[in-house]
Amino acid sequence: MGFVADTGPGVIRVAMVDDHALVAMAVRGLVESDPSLEFVGHAETVAELFQRVGPADLVILDLRLRDGSEPAANVERLRRWGARVLVLTSGEDPYLIREVSRTDVLGIVRKSAPPAAMLAAISAAAAGDSIATTEWAAALDSDPSIESAPLTDREREVLTLYASGLGAKQVATRLGISENTIDDHLRRIRAVYHSVHRPANTKVELYQRGVEDGFLPGPTSG
After folding, report:
1. Same domain assignment for residues 127 and 94
2. Of the residues 141, 166, 197, which one is the last residue of a structural domain?
3. Based on the domain organization, do 130 and 194 belong to the same domain?
4. Which residue spans within 24-116 are E strands per DSSP?
């Protein structure tokens, strides 16, 4: 069974889709330990979440649900609903991990992660930041469908700085060039990724592409 809470002012609303009650209870406890977050509800399926829980800014989604739904389809439905998505996995199905790694998720985290690491991932995802994990990197490394993007050295510099969290103006200052030039580089980078069928329309997607191609520092375990 799920539960629903009323949000307070200025908090980020977090919901969960998982058909294991104990996991949901543990995650709820972690979320409620952070005053900037509010746990607004839990459901066993995405459809149930839509029916029973109000709007959420972030949904923590179990990779494999007993209703037989496709992980990628679940992510797409939640993104259309307006929520960011953080995926939890037991690591039991590499194929599904690879499949969901190609969707618009902010990260893939093991359910066995230490509580502090899990809370850090949830807090980062709630803020809209990508979470680099060994699960995500391994899925990308083993995916033969990924074709490297032919970026110049300067474009790699721009991608690395921008996707790591800096704004265009900050990147321009760091590299000693104009903000307009940075914008031109970003347009070219997105066009290059589009040409190899790897969309990079958002900053999150640019971060994902940078991790995939090794332009950004690799994730650390633990």
Report:
1. yes
2. 141
3. no
4. 37-43, 58-62, 84-89, 108-110
